[in-house]
């Protein structure tokens, strides 16, 4: 543990447990701390898993228990990454989502469904942090990010997303101030470092595909996109009053959701994590993001309509059940909205997907990727990324997205 983390001690953890469990008899006996994510799994905060042994009084007897919690910390050490996390306000968006908005959304869907883990404690400064229940302790885990999700996982994820969107509509109708999640990933108010990341990512992709014979003829067109990539994405997902708008997860890919499995290894439940990019706009944002980052090749090519039907069915049923005044879109309207924002999916595939398809042992964090002045992203060399792009780039061109 680093020197800066001297505050993370038994009495701090005891305070959190007493508060979150509403029990002042709790006494922490022992704790151990380790990083909760590997390099490349989590770009916007430092996460620790704390295993705690504690005792409490129950009916005059002292009983011992174990619990695991997650501490998410705004990075303390100065770096490029720290600078743009602080300036963009991402961490505070997550605090607001977990301690207010999602708390209310979950209340609407309980006890049958849950969208997220519980927030146990929030601290706004010195250091800024968020403490959450450990979903792994409840039996949730990550799916394999390199192969993409099969149909069973994808259906569960889209059902969860539909409930997330529907509950957000209900909450925003009751409290219009909940619509104030206005930034997301692409927003002109963000610090220039964030824009630079996307510009560099597109240039690096263009340089890489210049070496792939199957698609090298597109390299120049893609390089030209780099100057206005940020603007294209921002325009694609602009809020339109005529459409359904929801609070989007904003970073909806398989690294940011966990699944629970039955004894045969079949996925039976899904839950979301990481809420720094939440943004109120068209649900097409989350759908494009998910489709372009998280599906296996087979599901992406053959099951798009199955997934959209599943999403719309659950969205409509849940909005009705929650007595929303807003009408859900028809399938025609949903597809039209997806078509209008299709360039967003392409930009996500060009810039975010390589970060996710990078082999674990080659993963880099944002400082490694950006600090040398040249953009180093080993994900661009991954075989699975190359295979996907060789199929998709000609399609993007056919759709007129490469300019």
From TrEMBL:
Domain spans labelled CHK kinase-like: 130-321
SMART domains in UniProt: CHK
The residues forming the signal peptide are none
Question: Which Gene3D superfamilies is this protein grouped with?
Answer: 3.90.1200.10
Q: Which Pfam families match?
A: EcKL
Q: What is this protein called?
A: CHK kinase-like domain-containing protein
> What species does this protein belong to?
Atta colombica
Source taxonomy: Eukaryota, Metazoa, Ecdysozoa, Arthropoda, Hexapoda
